[in-house]
Amino acid sequence: MLAAGCLVPSTVTAQTFTLQFGQRRPGAAPDPDAALFVDRQLSLGGSVSQATSADRTDRGVAALVGQFGSLDSTRLGWVQRSRTFGVLGGGSAGVEGGLGGEISAGPLFEVAPGEGSFVRGGISAELMGNKHFYSSWITLPRLELGYHAHDSSRLLEGYAFVGPTWTGRIKLSDQEGQHKLGATIEHGGVLSFATPDVRFDLSYQRFAVWNRSGVAHVVRATACGHFGRPSICFRARLYEAPQDPRELDHARIGYFGVFLGLGPLVADP
């Protein structure tokens, strides 16, 4: 009987092995310095744009529907950041739309709980315009170096970035001039601040090659707050770039939007 029993194969229960980077193991102590600030919303709004060259100025207004996403996450010594958007609509400048974002992640070197320097790698990309202007770029990889501080209700972050831009343009859509961003270096800085009710982002981008004339500048600002369930966001962009042919001088573009969010801002530390 013993021999027969030994010949009967025993049933072995298969166990699934899952590797999750940046996730706490079941049963382990919680991460006391973890924080998550998230803002994802479907929005309705409007925009005003102005595109100026050497001899003319074009203005437009548009009604838009958009999806905007913002995430700042710190967990297990890993800090992540993303800003994404997609908008579509139209108005006096014809069809208007855009798609883009910035996504990065990397280690946080804490000098105090929830505070320290970081190194992140990521990508920056944009495609946006209407009948009067057009902007696009893809920067990959992008290196970010900065300082981060957060507690359960506030986040403050500032960093510098640099990376190669592979393709892109800033141009006045209904004119022949354009400024190519391909084979340039994108560099600049970002300042971010967030609470459960307010978020502010300010960024400066410079596209240039140090031994080549012609530099493009982009300044972007976003300020969001919510009152009860709805939220309101102000978004602004300023572009300045030389144009080829030179007779067009520089393109100077201003873009301003106001959006009512249908979902709340959330802070969940």
Description:
- Helix content is 2%, strand content 67%.
- Mean pLDDT is 84; it is low at 1-29.
- Strand 6 (134-150) and strand 7 (155-171) form a beta hairpin.
- The longest helix has 6 residues, at 2-7.
- It contains one helix and 14 strands.
- Strands 1-2-3-4-5-6-7-9-10-11-12-13 form a twelve-stranded antiparallel beta barrel.
- With 269 residues, the chain is an all-beta fold.
Low-confidence runs of at least 5 consecutive residues: 1-29
Largest beta-sheet characterization: 12 strands, antiparallel, barrel
Rg computed from alpha carbons, rounded to a whole number of angstroms = 24 Å
Global outline: flat
Mean pLDDT: 84
Determine the number of helices (DSSP H or I, runs of at least 4 residues).
1
End-to-end distance = 61 Å
Q: Tell me the strand percentage band.
A: over 45%
- SS class: mainly beta
> What is the total tally of β strands?
14
Binned, the helix content reads under 10%
Helix and strand sequence: HEEEEEEEEEEEEEE
What descriptive keywords fit this protein?
269 residues; mainly beta; 1 helix
List the helices and strands and how they pair.
Elements: H1 2-7, E1 35-52, E2 57-75, E3 78-91, E4 94-112, E5 115-129, E6 134-150, E7 155-171, E8 178-180, E9 184-194, E10 198-208, E11 216-226, E12 231-242, E13 250-261, E14 266-267
Antiparallel strand pairs: 1-2, 1-13, 1-14, 2-3, 3-4, 4-5, 5-6, 6-7, 7-8, 7-9, 9-10, 10-11, 11-12, 12-13
Short description:
The chain has about 270 residues and is mostly beta strands. The chain contains one helix and 14 strands.
